[in-house]
Prior knowledge:
The protein is α/β, with parallel strands linked by helices and 409 residues long. The chain contains 14 helices and 21 strands.
Amino acid sequence: MAQPDLSARKILLIVGGGIAAYKALELIRLIRKAGGEVRVVLTTGGAEFVTPLSLAALSGHPVRQALFAPDEETTMGHIELSRWADLVVVAPATAGLIAKAANGMADDLASTTLLATDKRVLMAPAMNVRMWTHPAVQANVERLSGFEGFHGVRWVGPDDGEMACGEYGPGRMAEPAAILQAIGDLLAGEAARPLAGRRAVVTAGPTFEPIDPVRGLTNRSSGKQGYAIASALAALGAEVTLVSGPTALPAPVGVTRVDVETAAQMKAAVHAALPADIAVMSAAVADWRVDGVASGKIKKAPGGPPTLALIENPDILAGVSAPGSHRPALVIGFAAETADLEANARAKLSRKGCDWIVGNDVSDDVFGAEGNQVILFTREGQAEPWPRQSKTEVARQLADRVARHFETR
Ligand code: CTP
């Protein structure tokens, strides 16, 4: 089998307390030989089987053991350590560590790191056969596997075989070479899905603001661009909520769609989908709604047509962009303009406080059309004109640009 290439990949290895802990030494050697970097967290139990000194010597970094060790926390805090990694590997994963992770317990550095990480976790269980086959352990394994998105734990092993305790059966930790292979496979899979573990909320389509039970104010947005963006983000692994005004489009595969009509409903649905890492507000939200929606159908009257009083709708994009704990790391707005695209788009970007704005010239009817020509304006002052391309291609380019943004952060 081909050796995986782990160049520049960062692995956080948690070594639990089991006789198989000695195999962690060989695993570190293999990861480094494949080009990867390893930092080690050693549990109290693990330290009974393997010394911090040998782990430090092989990994080339000090080994972390305590949750509240002032000298260790100042070099790299435990939260930072959990985010530093591209992948967290637990080898050996004991019944105790698995139980803690499955139940959200955080009472030492290893279990806290497992809760705090925003990366995929790979576990290599190692325990006595009776323990491994115990329904409590199996229930914990099932629970961990079933968590959504990157929270879903992946497994390598255990193998069948004779155990240190003399019994025979499943429970022996997978060999370091097999764990290395699983690490390579997982990272390769994640690379094709660079937004795996990221949450996104996308708005699309028009809003419909009722006048009475049968009439309303709306606009000509088809929703195509927003639907294509939701689909492109999901294809890169993001967990996407698409908040959609009334459109004739089917929900893209792998996307959670929330249907709304009015701007107020759209705003509520967007905020309910937070926290998210990415917000793309592509809906054509009606700027105004009717003040005092009639409860019955407004009838023609001799006095002439009714006068509609309008009130301003909330600005959803500005609300999502506002500083606060739930502000997504990347907020993207759209600016559909019929004149002075650059000046208007830039003014909109700063007025609404978003990070990027996708500007497009709608003077020659983009609504419902397949093609789209856009310029991406960033908060840093860049302007990237993209070629005229289909809305699907614009969406793909935007999703790739988003993935690149998170990679280089
Ligand atoms: N937007 C929003 N909520 C609103 C109005 C607009 O979230 N009530 C978002 C749109 O989804 C889009 C961006 O703001 O991402 C710009 O929308 P646009 O209609 O071009 O801007 P307006 O705020 O209407 O500004 P103007 O009237 O100056 O064109």
